[in-house]
Amino acid sequence: MSDFILFDEEFHQLKDVIGRLKADAQAKVVFIVDKNGQQIAAMGDMESLDTTSLASLTAGNVAATDGLARLIGEKEFPVLFHEGERDNVYISIVGQRVILVVIFDERSSLGLVRLRVRKANGELERIFDTIQKKVESEKTRRQEGYDSPFAEITDEDIDSLFRE
After folding, report:
1. Could you give the dihedral angle defined by the CA atoms of residues 81, 16, 41 and 66, in that order, rounded to the nearest 10 degrees?
2. Where are the alpha helices (DSSP H) in 33-109?
3. Residue 70 carries which DSSP code?
4. In what order do the strands lie in the sheet with 29-34?
5. Domain ranges of the chain
6. How do 88-94 and 98-104 pair as beta strands?
């Protein structure tokens, strides 16, 4: 699912889930990034953040950590946590598809964030499963019903077109 289509209905579902997560975890910012570093959805105070850089650095962080995991014989590290003086960053891989990022401060706790992220991950996985099924269904529908505009053109038609 490196490239996928985000349907309007599922986009709103994603926004609902991360909005609830932001409120329930008392987070400052919650966003979803694909593994290429493209932001998919976000909730919270994003004005003071360079979201493009944050998204790409998050994806790079996950990729580097995956390399570390493989070096020591682990499949992956599905959760990363960075603790700062004021803000903390909790990163979770959702269904090996996307990256969920929660930025929180002293108003919340790591335990609360972990608990709320675990619940949100399940909901997000179901949404991304639905997206994948829709994409596959659409692809199958197009392949079965696809009529090329060139299907009825014969070799003779092409020859006569280029003859003078």
Report:
1. 30
2. 51-71
3. H
4. 39-44, 29-34, 98-104, 88-94, 79-83
5. 8-146
6. antiparallel
* Sign, CA torsion 109/122/32/59: positive
Give 149's Cβ-side CA count (13 Å radius).
0
The 10s digit of each residue's pLDDT in 56-89 is 999 999 999 999 999 999 998 999 999 999 999 9
| Model pTM score | 0.81
Please tell me the distance from the alpha carbon of residue 87 to that of residue 102, in angstroms, as a whole number.
10
Cα separation, 8 vs 81, in Å, equals 31
pLDDT given at position 145: 59
AA letter at 164? E
Distances (CA, A) of 56 to 1, 32, 40, 138, 149: 18, 11, 12, 29, 40
What span, in angstroms and rounded, lies between the C-alpha atoms of 21 and 26? 8
CB 92 within 8 A of CB 100: yes
Structural fold of domain 8-146: Beta-Lactamase (3.30.450)
